[in-house]
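Quick check before the chapter quiz. The format below is the same one you will see on the exam, so make sure you can read both the input and the output lines.
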Amino acid sequence: MTFWILVGLMSVLALAFVLMPVIKPGVGRKPLLIAGLVLGVPLLAVLGYQKLGTPTAATQPPMPPMPPMAGNMPEGHPKPDVMNMDLGKLADRLAEKLKANPDNAEGWALLARTYVEVKRYKDALPAFQKASTLLPKDPHLLADYADALAMSDGGKFDKETESLIDQALALDPNHVKALMLRATMAFNRKDYPKAIESWEKILKVPGLDAERTKEATGSIAEAKRLMSAGK
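Here is the expected output.
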């Protein structure tokens, strides 16, 4: 699944490179090409956002790397490190393009989330800053920014991270990722009641998926255990 999402993101970036010169002033218009790109880019961006817009990296323990298994990868299927390298290169190319189009909020947001996907958190921060300046009322973007900021500092939460989480929740009090981040921040500070409050609020969000429900329920149980143990 991750492979196809990465392919979709690469396609978005590639289409962005094609679209920019097509719509430049003075260049002959090609209605069918432009229509196809205009429809294709948002669709692929949505597919990418399903992966990049929802994870809560700062709230998850790091997973141990899986050892390579010979013979299990289909012939011609790119290796994960190669895919990340290619995606990183495409992101760098998009960053260069955005220098000439600094008001492209969606472009900066895509760039930031792409850097997060390849774990280049520090590179993602300037892009998140530009995107959030242009889109200050987007709670998804603010929560993703807070997550990347924490990950860039080894999972630590500082005042800037907390401010971003607060801004996201002011815009959407039921934003699951922002609530997860706030709960984790409180848990790390051993403020278990506040952490439990945020996790319980997550459980009340309509349409919450099974994975998030299980995660919040387990986290509440662990916080209550630690409270009882006086830790």
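If your answer matched, good. The chain is about 70% helix and 0% strand.
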